[in-house]
Design a protein that fits this description.
Aminopeptidase; about 140 residues; alpha+beta; GNAT_dom; five-stranded mixed beta sheet
Length: about 140
């Protein structure tokens, strides 16, 4: 994995990340647009982590911390690069960020129907909590 480079996203990465998610991520979110990513990067420039190899985007994770809870979103690896340790490397970088910020536990948003993701999260040491359910309300 020494040829894998993990860095924080910059505003110039937004369009590349959005294209990458259309190919590599499962499902979409109301925030998956240029303005949503621009707000994220402006508010927390270290939250969106990118994994690159040979100057190409291979994986992403959003490692958000609000001062109380650590949240992982949009862990995605390019389909041609899966099972190469990229997800684990991204989560290790995210967990290091959280620990530095004083985080105590990571919550991950994982689609119920995405069985492949369940295996990835389990392989990186996470477990499902069946007694919680997500409740949402779009603001627009």
């Amino acid at each position: 994995m020494s040829d894998l480079h993990i860095r924080c996203a910059a505003p110039s990465d937004i369009d590349t990340v959005l294209r990458f998610w259309r190919e590599a991520a499962e499902g979409t979110s109301i925030s998956d647009d240029h303005d949503g990513l621009a707000r994220l990067i402006t508010r927390d420039p270290e939250a969106l982590l990118l994994a690159e190899r040979d100057d190409l985007l291979r994986g992403t994770v959003i490692a958000g911390f609000d001062g109380w809870r650590c949240s992982a979103y949009r862990l995605a690896v390019h389909p041609d690069c899966r099972r190469q340790g990229i997800a684990g490397a991204l989560m290790e970088a995210a967990e290091q960020r959280f620990a530095t910020l004083g985080g105590r536990r990571v919550d991950a948003m994982v689609l119920e129907a995405n069985e492949q993701a369940h295996h990835t999260w389990a392989a990186t040491g996470y477990h499902r909590e069946d007694h919680w359910r997500r409740w949402v309300k779009p603001l627009r």
